[in-house]
Amino acid sequence: MIRCVVFDLDGTLVDTGELFYRLFSEVIRLAGLKPICFEQVGDPWASAYEQACAQYPQLRGITGEPRFAEAWERVLREMLAAGDVRLYPDARAVLHSLHESGRKLCLASNTPKQFVEMKLEALRLKPRFEAVFTPQDVWGPKPRPASLFHVRELFGLGPEEIAMVGDLPPDIIYGRNAGVRTVAILNQYNDRGCLAAAEPDCIVESLAELATALARLEESGPR
Questions:
Q1: Are residues 11 and 64 in the same domain?
Q2: Do 129 and 147 share a domain, yes or no?
Q3: 91: domain range?
Q4: Domain total of the chain
Q5: DSSP state letter for 183
Q6: Which of 12, 21, 60, 214 could lock onto 53 through a cystine, CB 3.0 to 4.6 A?
Q7: What gap in Å lies between CA 12 and CA 14, rounded to an integer?
Q8: What is the pLDDT of residue 222?
């Protein structure tokens, strides 16, 4: 039985695609550069960054600078206040159902810790998760599997009792690196072919299909 489900955050539970385009628009504005019209395709983070840098090469590498983090916090705070960063349909109901079934819920995000905490607080998600992992924690970012090994130790579980749910190949690789079951979820930004290439145990169209997917994984038994 799958006793613990570990979720990615952005693109899996929360739609933050528009956030990254607004963020890079703000960075461009603060740099005194002419605004650009982003083509919203593919992974929003990579897409916004690459388009901004293609237009203005001097912005390449800016994501590591303090002014970038300051802009990110300001844009995120404004969007959360306006309700422009929101949960995907069924996310709250799915988390509630999994919790009620007795499963442990954890979160593993590659977003910086301060921004994960802002979203969890604003969207009233924090109480749902027994453990939250970010790149700033001792276990490091995905796809490094150390945090999943910690989940195994924390709850005394075998790899077949844990499922990782995410929307990008690194989420799936993260799960596979730890030997746990993996569920890839499609959204408006990702690509089925890229997800399939990461070899998840299954791919679902939306969170509404997750319960059925977990049941099928349990029926199939260990790899």
A1: no
A2: yes
A3: 4-15+86-220
A4: 2
A5: E
A6: 60
A7: 6
A8: 64
Q: Which residues lie closer than 8 Å to 56 by C-beta, 6 or more apart?
A: 28, 31, 33
Domain final residue pick, 57, 82, 107: 82
> Is the same domain home to 35 and 93?
no
The tokens of 181 are what? Answer: 């079951």
Distance CA 210, CA 115 (A): 26
Name, in order, each residue with C-beta under 8 angstroms of 172's C-beta and a sequence gap of 6 or more: 164, 166, 182, 184, 195, 198, 199, 200
pLDDT tens digit string along 165-218?
999 999 999 999 999 999 999 998 898 999 999 999 999 999 999 999 999 999
Residues 122 and 209 in one domain: yes
Cβ atoms of 206 and 89 within 8 Å: the answer is yes
State which of 64, 82, 100 marks the end of a domain. 82
Question: Is residue 108 within a helix (H) or strand (E), and if so which, with residue range?
Answer: strand 104-108
Q: What is the pLDDT of residues 32-62, one digit of tens each?
A: 999 999 998 889 999 999 999 999 999 999 9
Name the residue with tokens 């069924």: 90
First to last CA, the chain: 13
